[in-house]
């Protein structure tokens, strides 16, 4: 097998369906971190409610936060699934489904990137308005946006972790092209 | 070299520093599309100005659009650079710097994903307000957000193209792990 490949001018590369133990362990640790960050971000944003003159301001009232929460929920579910698979892989010493890791990590990291962008976009511009206007000191709307800001920051960290995971899963990808 | 690797229990895979002609051509076409989409998106957002009662509303007044424009500018510059390198690679039949492609495409696609998220986040929620309020029929602010929406849609398409490029460059990545 190896000899025939070495003889061919442009041989299809052998597909090494394995990754080293260290990369599996690194993946496991990063997946734990991503899951924890996403879970806290989910709780902070999901419980973000504020009363203004008998009516409530909730994160659902702003479409950007709805989208942000959707990405967090999908990210958390995916992290939990991958965490279970990672633990199994580290214990058994086997590789998981490398193609699932590659496309899963890529898709989820893009989702989290867009969710982070959406979260910060709506928060930063609205905070500028509410922080500048003294009216909002009384009705305490600032706390609502501070919490959203905290949630977006956690989501940003979770995105960075998932982007690192995506780099690792790209390196362990069996070659096709 | 090939024999010693075949004998080892967990050998480092050989690094095939090449990609097929078809993948190079596909990359070139995708890079042309990405560049055109980003350029139109840049023009649409960059020229988005509106007069309201002697004062001007420009995209710079909204931080989310500033961020969005930054990602578009960086994306356009990167696309142009990669386009030049791609043409050179197709003509010479050689591969470019695969590691630059991999990390470049990854970084730029994340940037465009967050820019798309930011653009849509601020546009969708503001459009809901301005479309519902009859006051804005007179001062024509809706056109401003319609243009921003168009720019964000083009950016979304450009992001999709860059994400595809990132998948291709992951497959042509020399393995390390």
Automatic annotation (TrEMBL), chains A, B:
The cellular location(s) given in this protein's UniProt record come to:
Cell membrane
**InterPro entries from the UniProt entry:** CASP_dom
Q: Domain Casparian strip membrane protein: where?
A: 23-160
Superkingdom of origin organism: Eukaryota
Q: Which UniProt keywords apply?
A: Cell membrane, Membrane, Transmembrane, Transmembrane helix
Lipid bilayer topology: Multi-pass membrane protein
- Please give the start and end residues of each transmembrane region: 25-46, 67-87, 107-124, 148-171
| Alphabetical list of Pfam families matching this protein | CASP_dom
GO CC field = plasma membrane
Q: How does it assemble?
A: Homodimer and heterodimers.
- Family per UniProt? Belongs to the Casparian strip membrane proteins (CASP) family.
Q: What is this protein called?
A: CASP-like protein
Source species = Prunus yedoensis var. nudiflora
């Amino acid at each position: 097998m190896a000899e025939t490949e070495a003889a061919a001018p442009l041989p299809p590369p052998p597909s090494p369906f394995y990754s080293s133990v260290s990369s599996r362990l690194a993946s496991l640790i990063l997946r734990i971190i991503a899951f924890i960050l996403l879970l806290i971000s989910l709780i902070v944003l999901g419980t973000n409610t504020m009363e203004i003159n008998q009516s409530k301001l909730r994160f659902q009232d702003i479409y950007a936060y709805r989208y942000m929460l959707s990405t967090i929920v999908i990210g958390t579910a995916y992290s939990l699934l991958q965490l279970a698979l990672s633990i199994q892989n580290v214990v058994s010493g086997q590789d998981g489904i490398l193609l699932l890791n590659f496309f899963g990590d890529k898709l989820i990291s893009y989702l989290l990137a867009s969710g982070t962008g959406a979260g910060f976009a709506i928060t930063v511009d609205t905070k500028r308005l509410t922080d500048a206007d003294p009216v909002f000191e009384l009705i305490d709307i600032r706390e609502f946006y501070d919490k959203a800001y905290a949630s977006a920051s956690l989501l940003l960290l979770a995105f960075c972790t998932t982007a690192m995971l995506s780099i690792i899963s790209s390196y362990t990808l069996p070659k096709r092209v």
